Amino acid sequence: MFLQQLINGITQGSLFALLAISFSIIYGVLKLVNFATGSLYMMGAFAGLMVVKYVTPNIFVALLAGGLMGWVLGFIIEKVAIKALRGVARIASLICTIGFSIFLNELASVIYGAETQSMPSFYNETAFIIGDVNVVWYQIFMVVTAAVILLFLQIIIFKTKLGLAIRTVSLDYKVAGLMGINVDRTISYAFALGGSTAGIACVLAAVYYNAVVPTMGNIAGLKSFSAAVFGGLSSIPGAILGGYLLGIIENLGVQFVGSGWRDIIGFVILVGFLLFRPRGILGKKINI
Predict the structure, then answer these.
(1) What residues contact residue 49 under an 8 Å CB cut-off, 6+ apart?
(2) What is the 3-state secondary structure (H, E, C) of the chain?
(3) Among 251, 270, 248, 264, which residue's Cα sits nearest to residue 17?
(4) Nearest-CA neighbor of 70 among 93, 40, 45?
């Protein structure tokens, strides 16, 4: 059971890491926690489901649809609300993201229905067996896909002009504007990039759990925020580390403490780090 929970933790940690890096990208640019991330995550799953049901039963096209949905919604949220509130108290923008989260959840309930819908399975054959533990191909697919996306994001942030602009704006957006950087466009791309990452993550999650429901982003978003704080909300590598550690700790907690503690563990970690090390494992000193 220990080995089974460890494998489950790594698989689930891949999802947490993708969502945590979505929080980290946006926080790095605006020092804003985007609590609409969980809803962008959910909307990406519905986009993938619609593609699989009505267009083509192809997981890669579904992932593309989820990422595109997250990109568009993230871009719209920044343009419609966050841009108008830039320069005012951050609490206003924070409340605005919560409002968008509620709006998207209710919109999904109206459009798709409030009941849980089934997502088709992919690659559910056994890849190999370790002792008494079966590892299916989809678990490997999830981990590899998440690793590729995380590597791609690292390349974008640290090896491209867009990434340089994002990092410059994160230091001081007013000075960045004086240096010739298009601040509005950079912030919009950062929101869109974070939304796209969340949308892809939820397509992976929907296939893994074989379920899509309008409320699926609520707990997932809060847990991933915990993971981002755990690893370091101001650090992209820290957010990735926090996501994997939270997934492993949560699943091992199920083994040693009990399944009823699964959702509690992430929030205990969040409170503990906010009290004793708010900057997280790899993050710089921050004020949350």
Answers:
(1) 62, 117, 119, 206, 212
(2) CHHHHHHHHHHHHHHHHHHHHHHHHHHHHHCCCCCCHHHHHHHHHHHHHHHHHHCCCCHHHHHHHHHHHHHHHHHHHHHHHHCCCCCCCHHHHHHHHHHHHHHHHHHHHHHHCCCCECCCCCCCCEEEEECCEEEEHHHHHHHHHHHHHHHHHHHHHHHCHHHHHHHHHHHCHHHHHHCCCCHHHHHHHHHHHHHHHHHHHHHHHHHHHCCECCCHHHHHHHHHHHHHHHHCCCCHHHHHHHHHHHHHHHHHHHHHCCHHHHHHHHHHHHHHHHHHCCCCCCCCCCCC
(3) 248
(4) 40
Yes or no: say if 22 and 157 are a contact pair by the CB < 8 Å rule. Answer: no
Q: Can you read off the two tokens belonging to residue 16? A: 């947490």
Cβ-based neighbour number of residue 252 at 10 Å: 17
State pLDDT tens for residues 52-73: 999 999 999 999 999 999 999 9
At residue 146, what is the residue type?
A: A
The Cα 175–Cα 158 span in angstroms is 20
The whole-model pTM stands at: 0.89
Q: Which residues pair with 126 in a beta bridge?
A: 136
Q: What is the pLDDT of residues 72-98, one digit of tens each?
A: 999 999 988 888 777 676 788 888 899
